[in-house]
What does this fold into?
Amino acid sequence: MSTPIIHQTAAEMSADLASGSVTAVELANAHYDRIAAVDGDVHAFLHLDREGALAQAASVDASRKAGEKLHPLAGVPLALKDVLTQKGVPTTCGSKMLEGWRPPYDSTVVANLKKAGVVILGKTNMDEFAMGSSTENSAYGPTHNPWDLSRIPGGSGGGSSAALAAFEAPLAIGTDTGGSIRQPAAVTGTVGVKPTYGAVSRYGLVAFSSSLDQAGPCARTVLDTAMLHEVIAGYDAKDSTSINAPVGKMIEAAKKLDVKGMKIGVVKELSGEGYQAGVLTRFNEALDLLVAAGAEIVEVSTPSFEYALAAYYLIAPSETSSNLARFDSMRYGIRIGDDGSRSAEEVMNMTREVGFGKEVKRRIILGTYALSSGYYDAYYGSAQKVRTLIKRDYEAAFAKVDVLVSPTCPTTAFKIGEKSDDPLAMYLNDVATIPVNLAGIGGMSLPCGLAPEDGLPVGFQIMSPALKDELMYHVGGTLEAALQSKWGKPLYASAPELAVK
Ligand code: GLN
It folds into this structure.
């Protein structure tokens, strides 16, 4: 039996498009059929832009027919996290606040995708304004993990990763402020990359915590994420924190199949106590494969990581309290109570009361408190100092090793509802992903197997020094190849509940 087209990788779809054995319109329609069949169960998408996607696909097909030279990803479908603007297409950020808003401009990520001819199928579900680790904080209902529909798909970008795992799209875009690309990738058995801060433009990325936010590529394979990375990365004058440096050769790096002579550091603080036994089992097996592929493994200690979570949950809410002040009922989204009898301030208060969910309000209040005079130095100031210490821990570690590794998350996917009443338990999911954001370096998660105790995917995290994102692809590509030759097939091919027939 031949593999269904939606089961292929983006690289395979690209080859089929180039050879003419499938058209971009056929490919888009095959994915819309799949979405119609399974998204009632998964709820990965908030909005489908069938008309726009099919127009883009038809234009790619016409250009190909005319013999134009196209980008390799031209005609390949993609799912876009609903926190990036796409001209004329609803952008809600998973919030009621922005219901009905159609941005008048494309984010730079979207502009780059369009330029390459990528076909954007629709917008994916997320925790409200990207705050959360389970996608349960969406105002539009949770997304379900395709491996077990009673479980969370991670967050905040659970919709993007679930769409990949359920074969609703071969490529997706996520954003990662404290782990929102890597943690969903880990629990859905897919790949997700948070590039170096500043490598991908934030123009048109609705801000949560501006000094941490970064968009990145998600897919089912390391090579596919590398292809997408090269499309979305690059200097952009519209983002003042954009880095003016050439984009590295991610595709080339992803194709390297050994790590001879490389030194890989296992972060002691992120790979022991508090981690599920089966997560550590699969993580350690992956380390053995890297040794077999030529790497030397050493243990590295990063003592300041102990304070990373606390520092993040002061810095991110502080920036949130400022960034979300723009939702004032005047400029974007909904407006409540404006019947002529109320002052602008009353309308603003009513709108923010109705428009924001519980977690967003919690963060605004926390952040406002952390920034208040009298407390500023004790909270926000101290958190910024911790940030410096974490950066120094990484610098010291990268003086000894090429990359650092850890499990991406302490556990596999938990049940929907299990942690929704316990914000601290929810925050602890991010313990291994947050240090990367605080330091502004690169982080990747790729699947390293299924935990023996529950049969759910385990994520392997690779961290690379700033602007050396190629190293993640190099090590990730090598590990993925070693794992696949051990298993005889890619992990994503075994998702039980929604297996492609
Ligand atoms: N889970 C983290 C939070 O709730 C990270 C979210 C993100 O990366 N957008 O803040």
